[in-house]
């Protein structure tokens, strides 16, 4: 995206551990709450440096939750980004107040926290990278190294111009720039771009201040003149950056600055100039040579001529390998008596590491859930990278045909796994060895496992697996594959295991079980009804036996009254039968 585009660059800021959105002073910057990005524990935070934003919480990742933990941020538009991660200290006296751990961005290791980082008010309080993000997501991971647990205070992701820090053909896609040092020469106070009212497409960069390069009293100068941008200086650099400078003195006409770096790395060096010295007004009055670690990298630099006039910006860039731990920049005047410089930026150039095939990463994540993998395994980020932090129990190899890493081995024996084997395991089609022995894995062996033609060793012994061994796996035993299915009481179907009976699917087994339950209920209902009916019949019989004497007396009296009625027929109309009057009272 070019700076002239009217839309604002994408930006998201996360206050790690925050339960609500917060704003930080003095710029009233919005920081979003930390929800749904990662695991870990919310903790109160101590601020290690004035550079870090004034936020009160952080996200803490104890080793019990795994050695590798990641923030996964979705819906990040394709583009060029400045990604900055601030480190924090847990606000608890019992905690190690300076954890040392590694940081990776998109699977590439970019930083290892040095001892003493929390006592420096400089770039050591955060890590900043320039990276192209192309997959719609951002993965930022923190890897334990055995020296305290990671604690992250805040994360910033800011879109910058696609041509920012353009360093030549192949720029950006195969490399990540990590900020090693950024100096504003001649300014008394360190600042962010926002303090300079910098262009929004440059990112909110932090600039350390420096008033002298060494023991010599280099002369700081400044101007209020507007600085013109040249084609060599993209206009997303803040104006104020070029309104101060350091100028060498008569005692030492050279300007020399030394910076500590990591050895055996490549560094991209960016040198910023503007001729703001009032004593220089025209071409040819100041010409300098620039050397790095004793080698001249730029000759005959006439700032006025190259930039197109005084008060005009000029940016020079070169990339150099450094074998030692020192990077020394020297500006030597070949015409005129003094050297001048406005700002310096130094980036470590980090090759982007190839990632693991996405379908194999997805299959491992499915396996993680299905097996109920303990938290201590982690299994976050990329399985194979950074190379210093591969997933525990996972073996990787590079696949030249896809230019990606693939999974060729799983070794998770005796880990207390209690889940099942998912069908997605067949997506790990480069597997040569699987060892899941000595666990409590249950269920069937997926038939899709037999489609992994590269599989040479399979140890599933000592589990709770059941059902028939897939035919494709059984056939592999004839091709010198080494499979072990012993100590699974429910497995059958190959020599050495029981013969299988009629094989029922899980659905069929569930159907039979439900049918049996229904039958039991029906039988129980019938028995209950029969028992109740029988009790009613027996109760009726007992009542009939109890009432028998009363019935005999009643029959005798009726007989007597019927006889009397026969002999006194003429009184018929005035006499009621015994049946009508009921039984007489006996006294």
Outline the structure in words.
- With 587 residues, the protein is an alpha+beta fold.
- It folds into three domains: 8-159, Jelly Rolls (Sandwich), CATH 2.60.120.430; 176-353, Sandwich (Jelly Rolls); 358-492, Ribonuclease Inhibitor (Leucine-rich repeat, LRR (right-handed beta-alpha superhelix)), CATH 3.80.10.10.
- 15% of the residues lie in helices and 34% in strands.
- It has six helices and 34 strands.
- The chain has helices at residues 303-307, 358-371, 471-476, 506-546, 548-567, 578-581, and strands spanning 11-15, 22-24, 29-31, 41-46, 57-60, 68-74, 79-87, 89-90, 100-105, 108-112, 126-133, 137-147, 151-160, 175-185, 191-192, 206-210, 219-222, 244-247, 255-260, 265-274, 287-292, 295-301, 313-322, 326-335, 340-341, 343-351, 394-399, 404-411, 433-435, 442-443, 457-459, 464-468, 482-484, 490-492.
- The strands form seven sheets. Strands 1, 4, 5, 7, 8, 11, 13, 14, 15, 16, 20, 23 and 26 form a 13-stranded mixed sheet that branches.
- Strand 27 and strand 28 form a beta hairpin.
- It starts with 10 loop residues before the first strand and ends in a 6-residue tail after the last helix.
- Residues 550-587 have low confidence and may be disordered.
């Amino acid at each position: 995206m070019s700076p002239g585009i009217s839309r604002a660059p994408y930006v998201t800021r996360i206050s790690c551990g925050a339960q609500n959105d917060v704003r930080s002073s003095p710029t009233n910057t919005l920081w979003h709450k930390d929800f749904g990005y990662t695991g870990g524990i919310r903790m109160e935070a101590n601020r290690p440096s004035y550079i870090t934003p004034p936020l009160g919480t952080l996200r803490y990742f104890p080793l019990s939750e795994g050695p590798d933990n990641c923030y996964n941020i979705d819906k990040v538009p394709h583009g060029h980004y400045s990604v900055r991660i601030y480190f924090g200290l847990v606000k608890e006296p019992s905690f190690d107040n300076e954890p040392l751990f590694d940081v990776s961005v998109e699977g590439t290791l970019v930083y290892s926290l040095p001892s003493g980082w929390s006592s420096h008010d400089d770039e050591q309080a955060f890590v900043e990278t320039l990276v192209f993000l192309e997959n719609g997501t951002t993965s930022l991971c923190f890897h334990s190294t055995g020296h305290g647990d990671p604690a992250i205070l805040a994360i910033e992701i800011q879109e910058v111009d696609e041509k920012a820090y353009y360093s030549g053909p192949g720029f950006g896609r195969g490399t990540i720039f990590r900020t090693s040092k950024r100096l504003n020469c001649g300014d008394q106070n360190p600042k962010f771009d926002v303090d300079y009212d910098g262009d929004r497409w440059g990112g909110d960069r932090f600039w350390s201040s420096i008033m002298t390069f060494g023991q010599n009293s280099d002369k700081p100068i400044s101007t209020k003149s507007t600085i013109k941008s040249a084609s060599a200086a993209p206009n997303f650099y803040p104006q104020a950056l070029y309104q101060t400078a350091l100028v060498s003195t008569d005692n030492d006409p050279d300007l020399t600055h030394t910076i500590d770096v990591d050895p055996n790395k490549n560094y991209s060096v960016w040198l910023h100039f503007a001729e703001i010295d009032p004593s220089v007004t025209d071409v040819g009055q100041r010409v300098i040579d620039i050397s790095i670690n004793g080698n001249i990298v730029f000759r005959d630099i006439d700032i006025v001529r190259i930039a197109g006039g005084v008060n005009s910006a000029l940016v020079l860039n070169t990339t150099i390998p450094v074998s030692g731990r020192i990077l020394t920049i020297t500006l030597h005047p070949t015409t005129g008596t003094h050297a001048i410089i406005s700002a310096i930026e130094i980036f470590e150039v980090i090759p982007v590491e190839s990632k693991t095939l996405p379908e194999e990463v997805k299959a491992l994540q499915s396996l993680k859930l299905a097996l109920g993998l303990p938290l201590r395994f982690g299994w976050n980020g990329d399985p194979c990278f950074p190379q210093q932090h591969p997933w525990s129990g996972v073996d990787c190899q590079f696949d030249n045909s896809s230019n990606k890493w693939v999974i060729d081995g799983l070794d998770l024996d005796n880990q207390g796994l209690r889940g099942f084997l998912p069908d997605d395991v067949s997506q790990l089609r480069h597997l040569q060895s699987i060892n899941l022995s000595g666990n409590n894995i249950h269920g069937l062996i997926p038939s899709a496992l037999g489609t992994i033609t590269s599989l040479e060793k399979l140890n599933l012994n000592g589990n709770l697996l059941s059902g028939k061994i897939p035919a494709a796996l059984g056939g592999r035993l004839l091709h010198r594959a080494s499979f072990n299915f012993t100590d699974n009481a429910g497995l059958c179907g190959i020599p050495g295991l029981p013969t299988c009976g009629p094989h029922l699917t899980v659905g069929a087994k569930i159907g039979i079980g439900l049918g049996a339950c229904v039958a039991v209920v029906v039988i129980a209902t019938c028995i209950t009804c029969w028992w109740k009916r029988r009790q009613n019949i027996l109760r009726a019989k007992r009542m009939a036996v109890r009432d028998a004497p009363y019935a005999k007396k009643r029959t005798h009296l009726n007989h007597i009254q019927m006889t009397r009625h026969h002999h006194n027929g003429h009184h018929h109309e005035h006499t009621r039968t015994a049946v009508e009057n009921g039984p007489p009272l006996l006294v």
